[in-house]
Amino acid sequence: MEPGTGVVDDLARLTDLNQHIILQELQLRYAKDTIYTYIGDILLSVNPFKELPLYDKEVVCQYRNVSVLSQVPPHIYAIADRAFTSLIRNKTNQCCVVSGESGAGKTEATKLLVKHIIGLCRHDTNTDLHDRIIEVNPLLEAFGNAQTVMNQNSSRFGKFIELKFSPEGYIFSAKINEYLLEKSRVVRQGYGEKNFHIFYYMFAGLSPTRLEALLLENSQNHRILKRTDGIAVYENEAVRKYCEDMMKHLKYLFQVIGFSQEEDDMIYALLAAIVHCADVEFEVDADTDGVYIANEYTLDIAAGLLGVHSEDLISALISNSSIVRGETIVTLKTIEQAEDGRDALAKALYSRLFGWIVRQINILLSPKQSSCGTTACSQIGLLDIAGFENFQQNSFEQLCINVTNEQLQFYFNQNIFAWELEEYEKEGINGSDIVFTNNKPLLDMFLQKPLGFFALLDEESRFPQSSDLSLLDKFNNHFATSVYYLTASQTKSKNLMVFAVVHYAGQVTYNARGFLEKNRDTLNSNIVNCMQASQSQIVSDLFTAMITDTGTLQLNKSRPKRRMKSILQCKRPSVVGSAESLSRKTSRAIRQNMKKEHYRNDASKKNIQTAGLQFQNSLVDLLKKLLDADPQFIRCIKPNYFKEPDNFLPDLVLQQLKYTGVLETTRIRRLGFPTRIPHLTFIDRYKVLAFDSSAKVDATPVNCYKILTFANIHGWEIGKTKVFLKYFHTEQLNLLMDKHQASVKVLQKMLRGYLARKSAKTLRKSIAEQLTWSRSFITNIGQKSVDLFIKMANQKEHDYTRQQELLIERRKLEIQRKEKEEEEKQQKLALKRRLELERRLAENVNSPNRSNYVNIPSSQAAAASTDTQSQSVDRTLEWSNRIWRMENAETPGGERHKRPSGDGVRSGDGVSTSGFGDIPDLIKNRKSNNYILHHVFNPALIPTQGKRRTPANELNSKEYQYDTLQSTAYTPSEVSYAEYSHYARRPQQNTELTSKFYQEIIKDALSKSGDVEPDIWCKIYYMERGQPIGKVYVRNYQVIVDSSTTQYDGLRLGIGAFKNPFRDDKIMKIREHIGKGLLLELDSDGTSIVATRLGRNDIIIKGYSNPANHSISEEVIQNLGKLDFETPVKIFDYKEFKSHMALESRRSEPEMDRLYPQLITSISFVRDSPDDLDTPCWISLINLAALKILQDRDVLKKVQRDMAQMALDRRRSCDLMEANSPNVLEENTKLGRQSQPGGLKKEDPARRSRIELRKNKKSIHESGLDYSWEDKFYDSPGRSGALNEEDQYRQQDSSPLGGEVGRPKRNWAKLDKLIKTKESEKPITKEKNKR
What we know:
This protein is α+β, with helices and mostly antiparallel strands.
């Protein structure tokens, strides 16, 4: 092709070939925005410094499964496609080597390669590994890239990405290998340069609240973020907005790749700790000849974020410790040593954090199970490393980067030139006379042992007294004769600490100052020990982990996890300074305890991993990975220094073309044979082009010649053991193979169709025969089944008839037997009653007071004979049996017949208005009849002499109640009707077990009260009968308890989430009917608990019938413990609780421990059970907020003072009332008050006002009276105004001025009866739950 047109896609096809023609062609293509050009199979990429429409979906589809590269324009996607296709077809590892200067676009090229390869491969749709791998590069750029003079996004580390594939082409894992992180940039940047991107993203993107939590101030105030050129941290608002957007994207990347929120917070906290550590300043301490810390406030922040004590961190920063002959020697640092130690700690924290991030990424990108199984998997590697650099000030970091690029250039030369020429000579091929620049002597100067550059640097680093000047002298002496090394005098530099190296890309001048310190790169042992003892798990792990030979972090997997505080819980230290700074005290203490021996440097130790040694090991590891794969080269070119679009500087581009060997590469790619295939491999791969697929073909040069001739390919060579092909020959052979395979597929399709049709015909014939036999068999079976069914039906009918006859006969016999037994029973019962009646009649006749029982006329008694008496007894017995049956018979409504009163019997005619018919004279008399019906026929009801039972209607009368908090009288809730309408005590609950259970949970709450966080206000126990199933702490001010299976998340507690293997069916059924449950929330007073029923089913507050032992509110007692739908009710009332505290304080020896049961509130989800431990489903709450109040002794003292003051106020009020009212004695006598030796006991005027209000049925609150806890000793916890004066609570007499004060008593039994009576009068309505 003709040069100078800009349309040549492959420079190897140019007719004229020289540097100027290549440069002109590249410039013309660059002007047309064509940035990609081929040099054979090598891609040349020129950075456009602008966005181009070259990477949309249409372009991606165009470069998928490309057979011949010449058919499509040059593109980086074509290189990715070729690497993936070679991986699948040849089953060999591939690598893509991206090289070039800093700012040439290597990082962007690597990201495009990864994106296209991931798009080409297969991946499991059930995983997000595809997205994770694509987003890895931007995440690593945030932590490993920084702005330099030459590039705004320069890679300050090297990475080798390994993408692993299964034989079928599925990607199943990825791995990142990081090399040579420039960690010195953390604490020091060159002129016009910046720190790593993540620091600027963090200050711009985190919220002010988050920055305040990390104790970070304005970014301009921190040392490591200040620009050396005096420019602001963010040049303008657009830069700040960009950093803010990148921080948002970074948070998204953390989520996509799989980092947890806890890990994100830990990363930000460590970055903040690095910023604060770098801000620590030192000053000389004249008293100890050491140093002290000038800003200890900043050090306290850093120590808090790192989880170490400030004293330990101060000691590690201002002193050195070493072990010599088993003895620890401690010395104080100079100000230079202290600053170096501070910077070393910051660099170590960042480099280890970066290594930890890479390790976490590899864990998240690694497969759970290998998809390859036992088959070896292939991989594609992508290398992205910092390009060649030449700044105004070049130091140890630039030297390592440039030596790495020298090694990559050598690898390129070996693959393109040296190995190919050696292969030509070995195989007897006449290779072209190609000359190239070999940089192996320069690499030997750096890497050779024992007199290489890095070997001498490590040797000098082991001497404690060595310096940078002595190191430079050693370099000058050893490399004076090398053509690649220049001394300061040879470079004509005024700075005597410099030297120059002639690299393949040009001469670079390096400043030797700081080489020794950077190469040692060691932390003092006391700093390492301080970090290892950190209370933060991550900080301790980072400094306990082992550093490998290549400088990467390797955590100890077997190290057990410890429970340590989080580094995020750092509090702002106090700014109030002491009389003397802590660092001065520590320095003085170290000075006093110092050994007299001189300090010996830790560098005397053996086997120290220097930075230079780690760098050499990294190069060896990197080359090993590259040599195990077939390379694909991408050479990136930077068109100008200013990062401007459409600006092509020919001199700069020509310089890069020279030292990268583009001209030689073009010549060898045009004239050489980059593809070299062994004879056996060539025959196996391409024999079908010239031979039968089943033929056995020997691997000989003749057979290879036949294949190449049949393929009509020209320009190849056949060596002794290999076939030499040009780069486009492989594409031509593969194209022929694709056509052959397409023909084979057509033939296979036709043959398979024929075989399938033949098989289908045979199958259809076989199916028809099987259907014929099957139908015949089914017909026979059906006929026999019908015959068998008829026989079985006849037999079943016969058996049923016979069984019914036997059953009828048995029933007749059973009825006869029962009738006979019943007849015998009635006879015996009648005889027994007859004998009993005769005995009683005989006793009544002989009794002197018989007229009081039976009113029989004396004339009849005198004239009656024995037969007459016998007949009278028979008649009396008959009618008594009839009356007894009527009384005990039940009505259809379930009630028994009532006995007829005496008024319903008319004497004389023997007719009763009650319907009993003719009653004999023996039971006509009213008085005697009542007695006989009540006592003769029911002898168990005869009253016992001297004892009296309480009538049912007087059971709850005041005269039968006792003046105690828990009345011993029978109450309707404690009794049930017996057989003869008397009361019988209900079984009481097992109070001993219930009390023991409550004591245990109180004891548990008290034992853990010190460990509970201050914002937790309640502890919930979920119970199933007497078995605790689960317990949770409540921090939020409200929580919902329902029947869902939701695990407790702070806002909702699902009872269905608890497991109980011993749960019975009743509990299961009740749990299902809990529904939406209830809402528990903390009241505005900070102690009261409010409950709201959200479901349709009833919820009962236990203890409403015994309020003396609970701090429940008035509404709970009024509603008999039931919660109304969507009506908030206080189930723990702080005012009631204070009332109980006041009652306890009136004792002579008050003990607040008695009030611990008041803290418990139990809630039942079903009808209340007499025994709490027998309730199927219930919860028990412990009010931890009230527990804190109860444990505060100051609260008890305040209550006692208030009680004393209140008693004194009442005494004064009574004295004043006595002086102003002459009728006090009369009123007190009317109210039943007793006189005392000191005068009349005076009534509280507030109490009298409340009594008057209740008489008028008015509310206390409506009258403006204070109904606070101070007055609750005299007020009812029931409904306001519901009781009259006679129903007021009684109280014991007490002296307001001292002495033993009795605890007031409340008549809860009376209140319970009145409430239930009023509830029974309400009409029964069906609850309609609209919800």
